[in-house]
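Q: What residues go here?
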């Protein structure tokens, strides 16, 4: 019961979302990675803080910051892959966080700093597309690999199946009739069949 509850919590989309967001935040602000925005003059400080906070997760200016931001997104993309090991749920979980951050960033920036938004729109969108493509590719590639690694080996399954079939087959020692189960009596010659475990019990008694 406890294991089932724990499993549901781990696989919860909200929990995965929060874990990814926390890791992303720790890396971004731990390494002080900032995408500097030249806000319009009339925007309030509170709105600047919110928009800047969102921008740091999804925007980059140079090659170094591109590698850093995308490296963190690749890192957190492994979390749903390892949990779900399926393409659909892993990709959706990864893109959900990306969509959430981008949605509020673009809404707030376009509304409260329209001049900067208009001047930088294509760079902003390109950055978003780059991250989205990388996250999608990582989700697809590693979901496929994880699924293949965790799939039971076909040869091992066939070998186990053959063992099971052999243990359930039985041949009457008197008339040679074959059975797919282990009967008590032979239905052809009507003798009582003594099986290996019964023989062992008889020998132990003697």
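A:
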């Amino acid at each position: 019961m406890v294991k089932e509850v724990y499993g549901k919590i781990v696989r919860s989309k909200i929990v995965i979302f929060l874990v990814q967001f926390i890791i992303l935040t720790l890396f971004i602000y731990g390494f002080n990675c900032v995408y500097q925005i030249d806000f319009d003059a009339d925007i309030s400080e509170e709105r600047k803080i919110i928009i800047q906070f969102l921008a740091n997760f999804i925007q980059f200016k140079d090659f170094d910051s591109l590698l850093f931001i995308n490296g963190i997104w690749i890192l957190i993309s492994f979390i749903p892959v390892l949990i779900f090991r399926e393409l659909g749920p892993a990709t959706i979980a990864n893109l959900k966080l990306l969509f959430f951050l981008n949605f509020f960033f673009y809404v707030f920036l376009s509304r409260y700093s329209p001049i900067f938004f208009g001047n930088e729109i294509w760079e902003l969108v390109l950055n978003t597309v780059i991250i989205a493509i990388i996250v999608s590719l990582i989700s697809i590639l590693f979901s496929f690999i994880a699924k293949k690694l965790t799939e039971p080996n076909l040869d091992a399954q066939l070998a186990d199946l053959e063992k099971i079939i052999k243990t359930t087959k039985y041949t009457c020692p008197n008339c040679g009739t074959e059975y797919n189960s282990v009967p008590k009596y032979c239905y052809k010659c009507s003798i009582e069949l003594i099986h290996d475990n019964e023989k062992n019990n008889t020998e132990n008694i003697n």
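A: Context that may help when evaluating the design: The two ends are 48 Å apart (CA to CA). The first strand starts at residue 170 and ends at 171.
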